Amino acid sequence: MVTSGGARFLTGPWVTIAILGLINGLVNITSIILEAKRDGDPVSFVEPLILEGSSYLLWLALAPFIGLAVQRLLPNSGNLPRSILGHLAPTVPVSLVHVAGMVIIRVICFTLLGGEYRFFGDGILLPLVYEWRKDVISYGVLAATYWLYPLIMARRAKPVGDRIEIREGATAIFLPPGDILAVEAAGNYVQFHTKDRVHMVLGTLATWAMRLKSHGFARVHRSRLVNRARIGAFKPKASGDVEITLDDGRVVIGSRRYRDALGSVPKPST
Q1: What is the Cα Rg of the chain in Å?
Q2: Which helix (H) or strand (E) holds 107?
Q3: Could you tell me the fold of the domain covering 160-262?
Q4: 3-class SS at 84?
Q5: Where are the domains of the chain?
Q6: Higher-confidence residue: 177 or 11?
Q7: Per-position b or e across 44-65, b if 16+ CB within 10 A of its CB
Q8: How far is the CA of 143 from the CAs of 62, 70, 90, in angstroms?
Q9: What was the pLDDT predicted at 264?
Q10: What is the pLDDT averaged over residues 20-34?
């Protein structure tokens, strides 16, 4: 299920991809026309427009699915090299859909114009392998866009005086550090838990852990930070984990790996 926060993760980079892809397509079209003029060949704006436009439309349609793959394969605390290798498998179906879709669009367009378009003139396997090599690069660029987008958005948020600025969609929210109970990773989003609600913010837990360290937040789990000033009690479990009770009554679990981060727990604020 894609939440409203997940939808923003998909649409934000998609707009960037659409704009940059349009610019790249226009550059390619003009390059084809200029090269044709240089070589003395007949110049037509329509043919390169169909060739570039069909590929552009397919990548726009496929981009959100690549974004979903990034959410699944590039978690905040995941193994980056392993995650990158994990993306090789989906490049195959993505490339097949890209090729099939753009060929159908091109055949329809050229047929309507009284022309002919042949893509598999040299067989099927060789053209598919050739296109797949190029599509791997395009896939990587789109995946990198979806990966970098929340990191860039997180760096835009900053402390303002005694408050923390977070951006929930297009809205800037200023939270006193003491109002934040816990912070949890949620895919490419970070959830800020306050007494009354949860704020979904683009970013990684690692980035926010560094930003909030000076405000008394401790990492107690690979996907969770807690405000040490809001801890009411904590109790070790037999597994080595820690059961942490916050001063509003909610209970979160701390991993034994991060148990030392709790240190000497201050008294909860009143």
Answers
A1: 25
A2: helix 88-112
A3: OB fold (Dihydrolipoamide Acetyltransferase, E2P) (2.40.50)
A4: helix
A5: 4-155, 160-262
A6: 177
A7: eeebbbbbbbbbbebbeebbbe
A8: 11, 6, 11
A9: 54
A10: 92
